[in-house]
């Protein structure tokens, strides 16, 4: 196991002395278990590994210099096994950047790509140079260097109590796009600091977890191109350059040798406001691409170890991005474990969402493994013991594991079936009611509680990939022309419905229907068993104008339009209400003590209570959540009724014991008022009209 800065208590208190001189620098063999560059008393320890290299040089650069001012070749006795390690004395970390050159055999058919002319980035670099200014071509040669980073952030009395998975409401956002628009009103738009300024908004909304799209260092200019005078970039950031380094262009100021401080301040501020931080991590591929791509890191260290290669040395492409990391090779497995431990210990991250996670379960030839070593190691790692592990349980190679992702009761999944099935049901597709009932009750057909635990399903209707919730009910087809691929990119099967008109309209009836559909979706999501997640901006009707794949759009298409918050204040308040409602009713979130009334924890109904045998012909679903809340000392009874049909229907409510009544908390079909506070809730009749395309949520309470 490799060690990090915090492990340096192992270094003897006395300062070590040099034993050799190389290129004018006093040196000695280093700490072979400390991968990366680490400050020690009197010097800096540099350690890397390569199984195939025949020699290694450490390169030292002055800031912004094209050529190194020193090249220190590792002597043979500075190598143990496949690890090179050297302490260089007298270095001021603020006065240099570093990289490596490795020599070795070059044979593409064998997957060997050593090239002593290539400048290589340390795989364990804590900061990458030349990336601080967003949108600038700082690195035309793909030659990356690293900085040594001081780890002296004061976390103070940082909380360490994780929020249970079932209690989370996850809010997915893009750090830049969240505040980049001038309408955001922050002082440092598009940065970690800008996001920190929005914490009061997040608290008001009521979410308690943010899922940040990639914040690892990436090069947004990698595939920059000009389409109709608009510069398109790698905006989303799903092409990692370095796994250990934060994206410095998301910082509001340059942080030489203190990279990550602004991100740490953000994380601490979120924690101080009881909001978890989940990172979207991309361990399925890198920005080095295929055989036509650049060689700036892993290709030059051990190409045939870090990447999945075909028998003739080409790159398997299960990621759809040119290459595929060989995640279950012991070397790569160790790197990923070290990386995640680093983000947990040095950044106090609460969880990870793994992009295209099915790749993490493939062998070196691409076949799926029954017991993937990496996934198992992550599940049982002691440092990661309390963090959330969330898998995007599919990949671009066709492996789809929703409901079957290896879990050891530790892994949750983005439930893609929830998204697809609930979209179909809510827009009124036939024969979906029975499937929708399964999704609303935690998808027990996919996640057996005995084998997967009760928190396997992350329910979502929208995420960064696909339509926003507003666009889901405004467009029948994608409109990705601005991406420059003749509208061929992005999904075709969106399961969306434009409510009668494609795109913008002034028709008030259609607009009213669209917002009712959005409220229906929100109410159902917040009243489903499993962890809810939604895309930032959905709560105030943000639009991408029908673009369902704006990965390259660093402009108004992707930036949140905060003007809509005022325009659609009613929608925002509805989201606030439903999030708070979910928090107030634990019976929705988890199994409570058995109900004294005798109701099961969850039950599925049709328009007539306790009948669900003929749901294949129904457009209505009702779910009853029940249990005794010991914390509150009361029965918790929630009944949600959903009518996806274009005609109203008569709904009969389950009988309650004497002294209890059903009250209406939410009725999206009520044109005057859709939500009711505790003291406003009207008592419902036993039979009530469930309006067309509407949702009613009832609460069972003791009568006054």
Automatic annotation (TrEMBL):
Entry's Gene Ontology molecular function annotations: amylo-alpha-1,6-glucosidase activity
UniProt-listed InterPro entries: GH (IPR017853), GH13_cat_dom (IPR006047), Glyco_hydro_13_N (IPR004193), Glyco_hydro_b (IPR013780), Glycogen_debranch_GlgX (IPR011837), Ig-like_fold (IPR013783), Ig_E-set (IPR014756)
Record carries keyword Transit peptide: yes
UniProt domain Glycosyl hydrolase family 13 catalytic: residue ranges: 172-582
GO biological process annotation, one example: glycogen catabolic process
Record keywords, A-Z: Glycosidase, Hydrolase, Transit peptide
Cited SMART domains: Aamy
Matching Pfam families: Alpha-amylase, CBM_48
Family: Belongs to the glycosyl hydrolase 13 family.
Protein name: Glycogen debranching protein GlgX
Lineage, broadest ranks: Bacteria, Bacillati, Bacillota, Clostridia, Lachnospirales
């Amino acid at each position: 196991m490799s060690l990090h800065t915090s492990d340096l208590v192992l270094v003897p208190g006395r300062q070590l002395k040099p034993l050799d001189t190389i290129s004018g620098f006093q040196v000695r063999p280093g700490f072979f278990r400390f991968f990366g560059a680490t400050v020690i008393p009197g010097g800096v320890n540099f350690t890397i590994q390569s199984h195939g290299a025949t020699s290694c040089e450490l390169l030292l650069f002055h800031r912004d210099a094209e050529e190194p001012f020193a090249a220190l070749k590792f002597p043979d006795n500075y190598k143990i096994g496949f690890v090179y390690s050297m302490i260089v004395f007298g270095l001021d970390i603020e006065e240099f950047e570093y990289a490596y050159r490795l020599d070795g055999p070059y044979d593409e058919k064998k997957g060997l790509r050593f090239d002593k002319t290539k400048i290589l980035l340390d795989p364990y670099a804590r900061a990458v140079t030349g990336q601080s200014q967003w949108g600038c071509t700082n690195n035309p040669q793909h030659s990356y260097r690293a900085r040594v980073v001081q780890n002296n952030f004061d976390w103070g009395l940082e909380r360490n109590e994780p929020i249970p998975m079932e209690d989370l409401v996850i809010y997915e956002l893009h750090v830049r796009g969240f505040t980049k628009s001038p309408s955001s009103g922050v002082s440092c738009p598009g940065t970690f600091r800008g996001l920190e300024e929005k914490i009061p908004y997040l608290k008001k909304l009521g979410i308690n977890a943010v899922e940040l799209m990639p914040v690892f260092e990436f090069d947004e200019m990698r595939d920059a191109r000009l389409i109709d005078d608009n510069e398109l970039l790698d905006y989303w950031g799903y092409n990692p350059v370095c796994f250990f380094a934060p994206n410095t262009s998301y910082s509001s100021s340059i942080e030489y040798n203190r990279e990550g401080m602004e991100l740490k301040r953000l994380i601490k501020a979120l924690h101080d406001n009881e909001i978890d931080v989940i990172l979207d991590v991309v361990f399925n591929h890198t920005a080095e691409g295929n055989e036509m791509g650049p060689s700036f890191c892993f290709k030059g260290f051990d190409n045939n170890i870090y990447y999945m290669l075909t028998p003739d040395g080409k790159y398997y492409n299960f990621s759809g991005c040119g290459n595929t990391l060989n995640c279950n090779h012991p070397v790569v497995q160790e790197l990923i474990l070290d990386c995640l431990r680093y983000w947990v210990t040095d950044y106090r991250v609460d969880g990870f969402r793994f992009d295209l996670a099915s790749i993490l379960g493939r062998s070196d030839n691409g076949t799926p493994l029954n017991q993937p070593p990496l996934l198992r190691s992550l599940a049982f790692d002691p440092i990661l013991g309390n963090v959330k592990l969330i898998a995007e349980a599919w990949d671009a190679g066709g492996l789809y594991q929703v409901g079957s992702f290896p879990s050891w009761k530790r892994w949750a999944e983005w439930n893609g079936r929830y998204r697809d099935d609930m979209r179909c049901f809510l827009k009124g597709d036939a024969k979906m009611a029975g499937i929708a009932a399964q999704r609303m009750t935690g998808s027990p057909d996919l996640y057996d509680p005995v084998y997967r635990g009760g928190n396997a399903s992350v329910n979502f209707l929208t995420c960064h990939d696909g339509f926003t919730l507003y666009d889901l009910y405004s467009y029948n087809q994608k409109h990705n022309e601005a991406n420059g691929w003749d509208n061929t990119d992005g999904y075709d099967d969106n399961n969306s419905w434009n409510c009668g008109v494609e795109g913008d309209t002034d028709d008030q009836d259609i607009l009213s229907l669209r917002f009712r559909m959005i409220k229906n979706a929100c109410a159902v999501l917040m009243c489903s068993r499993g962890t809810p997640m939604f895309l930032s901006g959905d709560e105030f009707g943000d639009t991408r104008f029908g673009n369902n794949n704006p990965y390259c759009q660093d402009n108004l298409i992707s930036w949140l339009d905060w003007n809509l918050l005022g325009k659609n204040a009613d929608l925002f308040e509805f989201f606030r209400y439903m999030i708070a409602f979910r928090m107030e009713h634990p019976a929705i979130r988890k199994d409570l003590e058995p109900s004294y009334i005798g109701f099961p924890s969850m039950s599925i109904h049709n328009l007539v209570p306790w009948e669900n045998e003929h749901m294949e012909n129904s457009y209505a679903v009702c779910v009853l959540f029940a249990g005794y809340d010991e914390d509150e000392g009361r029965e918790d009874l929630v009944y949600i009724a959903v009518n996806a049909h274009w005609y109203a229907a008569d709904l009969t409510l389950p009988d309650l014991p004497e002294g209890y009544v059903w009250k209406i908390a939410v009725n999206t079909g009520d044109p005057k008022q859709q939500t009711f506070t505790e003291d406003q809730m009207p008592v419902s009749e036993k039979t009530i009209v469930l309006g067309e395309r509407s949702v009613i949520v009832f609460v069972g309470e003791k009568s006054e």
